[in-house]
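SEQUENCE AND FOLD
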Amino acid sequence: MSSGYAWLRPTAEEHVGWDVDVLYGPWPRHPRDTTLPEVRARLAASPVAGALALSTRGPLFDDAGGNAETLRDLAGCPELLPVGTVDVRDALTAEARLDELAAADVRFLRLFTVDQGAEPDFPGYRRVVRLAVERGMVLLHDGDPRRFGPPLTGLGADVVFLDLHAYVLADFLLLTRGEPGFRGTTRMLSGPDSIERVVEYAGARHLVFGSRTPFMDISPQTLKLRYADISADDRAAIATENVEELLA
């Protein structure tokens, strides 16, 4: 007789090629700081093969220094791709930061509008977004997509909304109409059919995997994919292929 529960053993349906929501370093609201080696160990013990990551020094303390730290730290981490950031409270320096990131071939820019107190109608926020889109960067965007989505429409932008919640899913699906570059992560889609609704109404291309490691456990996130009532092709798109399309 076998012991334990089958769902405790990861299966191929939980394989994730890219996790778009990974951080390392200090975070004042978290009980403890999590180092890069700890984050790498957590990912290595999970079904996640690769991730987009950055040092929290960038959004919390110093964007230029944080970007340099991320690039330096991740140079020896083949499974992690560096993500850049800028301080939207000081948009006058954003162009230089973005040029530095572009010169380093950083494809993804993470915006911390919640922690930096930016609103969608702030001039500095709008300038940062415009400059990033002009440089072909993919925005990893926090905050409520109902508030930040409308100003981003019509720009031809690739945007991953990191805080897409099941409660606002209908509005997000409306936003995706005519916006092939709008995507959300699976992290907060806690409804019993949230993933299925996105696939049915907008298509699997509008979802990517995000775990918010190390602040959240990875296994509940991979189990969502495992048990979602979607095709194997749609699962592969969400777990891996949609991010690889952004990297192409």
Strands lie at 16-24, 48-55, 80-82, 84-85, 108-111, 138-141, 159-161, 182-185, 207-208. The radius of gyration is 18 Å. The chain is about 40% helix and 15% strand. The chain has one domain: 13-247.
